[in-house]
Amino acid sequence: MVATKRKRRGDLAVQAKKPKRNEKDAKSLSKSPVKAEEVEEEEKDRIPGPVCKGKWKNKERILIFSSRGINFRTRHLMQDLRMLMPHSKADTKMDRKDKLFVINEVCEMKNCNKCIYFEAKKKQDLYMWLSNSPHGPSAKFLVQNIHTLAELKLTGNCLKGSRPLLSFDPAFDELSHYSLLKELLIQIFSTPRYHPKSQPFVDHVFTFTILDNRIWFRNFQIIEEDAALVEIGPRFVLNLIKIFQGSFGGPTLYENPHYQSPNMHRRIVRSITAAKYKEKQQVKDVQKLRKKEPKTILPHDPTEDVFVTPAEKKPIEIQWVKPEPKVDLKARKKRIYKRQRKMNQKVNSGNAK
Questions:
Q1: CATH classification of the domain holding 179
Q2: How many CB atoms lie under 10 A from the CB of residue 131?
Q3: Whole-angstrom Cα distance, residue 24 to residue 33?
Q4: What is the pLDDT of residues 228-256, one digit of tens each?
Q5: Which domain holds residue 249?
Q6: What family does the Swiss-Prot or TrEMBL record give for this protein (predicted)?
Q7: Do 247 and 134 meet the contact criterion of CB atoms below 8 Å apart?
Q8: Which residues contact 71 (CB under 8 A, 6 or more apart)?
Q9: DSSP label at 307?
Q10: For residue range 302-325, what is the model confidence (pLDDT) as tens digits?
Q11: Count of domains for the chain
Q12: What is 50-79 written as a DSSP string?
C-alpha cells in the first residue's frame, strides 16, 4: 500500500516522496546476501535449545493420598512420589471407616482421572491401589521392601519436575494381565508433555521389572557423558493381589494364585518356630524316659578276660612313725616380714626420741 499524505488546505491525497538513497545504503544492500548466507550456516551448526513451545494436550492428573494409620516410611514414600510426579495432587487422609467408592468422588472434586491410594492395615501392612477413575480398571498390590529417598544414601540426582523415561521388562508383553498393568503404569507414571509444572528435560528413568511374580520399581539417573545409570531412589516391590474391572471394586478380572497374605506368612513363621520348640521338648521327654527305664544286665562273656593282663601286687607297708609336717613357706615368709616390720618400728621410734 502506497504511503499518502493530505494537503493542509485541500482534500486531495498526494503520494509521499520516496527518501533518497545514499552511497552507504547502496553498499549495505549489495553486501546483505553475503551476510544472509553466513547466518544460515551458523544456524545449521547451532544446537537447538531444549525448551520448545507447545500445547499441553495430555491432561492426566494423579491424586496421591493415603488412609489413616500409616507409618513414617509410607508417608516419606508418598512425598517422594509427589515430588517425582509434577502432575500429581495431594489430599487429606481418608478415614478407614469410609468405603473405597468415595475415592471416585474425591477424584472428581480434585479434577483427577488417575489415583494412587495407600491403604494401611494393622500398622504394619501397606497396600497400594492404582485406579483409573471413575470407570476402571483398578489393581490392588501389597507393597514390600520400601526404601525412601531420605533413607538410601545413593549418589544419583535429577532435576525436580523433569520428565522420566519408562522402562518395562519384556515379560510385560507375554501375559495379558501384565500388559494391562503396563498400560495403567504408563498412564500414571509418565509426566505429560508441556505440563506447566514439568521441566522439558529427560534425565532419569523409571524401571519396572518382573521377578519372583512381583513388580520391582527403581529410579535411575541418566549420566550424560556415557549414558550410565546411577540409582536415585525410592525403591519398592509390588506384589499383585487382584485386578478389578471397575474403580476400587467391581468384577475380578485377575487374581494372583501365588499371592500369600501377610497374616498367613506370619502364621507360617510362628508355626516353624513352634515346631522347633516342640522338637526340643520331645527330645527332653525321651531322655527322661530313658533314665527311668531299668538298666539291662548283660550276661558275663568269658572271652572278655582273654587279653586282660593281671597287674603286679605291691607289698603292703605299714608306717609306724608319724610323718613330719610339711613346711608352709608362705606362713614362714609372713612371720619373717612381721618380725622385720616390728624391728623397723622400734628403730624409727628410738631415732625420733
A1: 3.40.50.10480
A2: 28
A3: 16
A4: 898 998 999 999 999 999 999 899 999 99
A5: 62-263
A6: Belongs to the BRX1 family.
A7: yes
A8: 120, 123, 124
A9: S
A10: 888 888 787 788 888 888 888 888
A11: 1
A12: S-----------EEEEEBTT--HHHHHHHH
